[in-house]
Amino acid sequence: MCLSILAVLCFILTSVSSNRVIELNEKFLDIYKRDGANPWLVMFYAPWCHHCKQLEPTYALVAQSIHNEDIGVLVSRVDCTKYTSVATHFSVRGFPTILYIHKNRIVEFLGDRTREDIIDFGKRLTGPPSRPIKNCKDVDNLRKKHQVIVVHFGPNPVWSNFSEVAESLHSSTWFYHSPSSCEKYSDNSIYILKSSSLGQEMDLKYENKSDNSLKEWVYSNKFPHFVKISHANLNQLLRSGKLLVIAIVEEVKSIGRLATQQHVDFKNMVENIAHSFDDQDKFVFCWTSFVDLINSIAMHTISPIPNLIIINSTTLEYFRVDGEPNSQNILNLLKGISDGDINLRPSGGDGYHHRLIRWAYDGYSSLTNMYKGNPILTLLVFGLPMIFLSIILYSSCCSDVFEAREEDDEDEEDSTHNKQD
Ligand SMILES: *[C@@H]1O[C@H](CO)[C@@H](O)[C@H](O)[C@H]1NC(C)=O
Ligand SMILES: *[C@@H]1O[C@H](CO)[C@@H](O)[C@H](O)[C@H]1NC(C)=O
Ligand SMILES: *[C@@H]1O[C@H](CO)[C@@H](O)[C@H](O)[C@H]1NC(C)=O
């Protein structure tokens, strides 16, 4: 078995770099379906692609961890500029794309491109969509291991809708089922169990009512407790139909840490509120350092940072904290919204004129950002055309005046002619 895998590897790989990422070529197309013993994680890249280069060290760590943990997934990559047939075969459109490939099964990785998320993805897909829990004690361990798990408790057999949902969300969410009932949880029920980085736990129980499909429920509640907004989950959050309570903080991207202790404290404060404020049906608590994104939704520059905004994900209307964003004021706002206080009127939205304003604001803010980055270039790029434009406008106005004068002259001439006649 080992030997055959080795033979396969020797056959298809062109070179193994110093890390454990296998470099593939077009022979992969002949091999991946035939030799289906091990699943593949394949990164499709192009040498010129900036995001691919950024992902490289992370991906090398993924390969190392998966090797160390003996998960049995072959971590590899393929240069799509050299082996275009491979990219075409898997209909790869953007770089980098990460696919899980096992025989005929192909699943795209759509999460945040961090080491943990990619490893999680590989591990999850190598097992069945829902894994059995043998002992109720294991539930606590699983909660420690994963931020979010969806669990079906017995003693009734697994509900077919549960299997269906587990299958469809296999790439993003961990599903488990316990054949027996467990003390802490109701019999024959489905829970979403979350744990936070601060060690808090939250349980959500599915109410099996006809108006609430299981799939929608899992879909809009599967976000980790106090989730970080990323490019990967933003669209899902906006489709959750909930109110997004967003802590806006500043992050030093290069080291992946928050800018100052003040930002760390603010984030922790909001996370604690997230835990104590018990209205999970209506709110999702999150945090972000994409200030531009929030400014664009709010259509103005939010300051000071750290700050907090509550966005209605369906309408893009938003609420801001009245006064200083401290815990008392934040709680008051949350309670007000939760109780349906009519004095609280949201701003913004996603109507036709809001889109127009947002469009103008985005244009304006990219211009000012560009000016801050490189004032001379900005002046050249936008200033020169403006000067030309004003000259053209000016001359066209003045030419009107000239024409008008000429006409006057003609009139006069005409009249003089008439006189002469
Ligand atoms: C939900 O309700 C349906 C129909 O009443 C039932 O068949 C199913 O077993 C229930 N599922 C759970 C998990 O309670
Ligand atoms: C269960 O699945 C069936 C068929 O897919 C669907 O019609 C029904 O609405 C689902 N029920 C729930 C509560 O999700
Ligand atoms: C979002 O706004 C709409 C329209 O005002 C409202 O009907 C809906 O309930 C709001 N969503 C939430 C989660 O409050």
TrEMBL record:
GO cellular component: endoplasmic reticulum; membrane
Subcellular location: Membrane
Superkingdom: Eukaryota
Signal peptide span: 1-18
InterPro entries assigned: PDI_TMX3 (IPR052250), Thioredoxin-like_sf (IPR036249), Thioredoxin_domain (IPR013766)
One Pfam family it belongs to: Thioredoxin_6
Keywords: Membrane, Signal, Transmembrane, Transmembrane helix
Transmembrane spans: 376-395
Span of domain Thioredoxin: 2-127
Topology in the lipid bilayer: Single-pass membrane protein
PANTHER family per the UniProt record, alphabetical: PROTEIN DISULFIDE-ISOMERASE TMX3
Name recorded for this polypeptide: Thioredoxin domain-containing protein
Source organism per UniProt: Tetranychus urticae
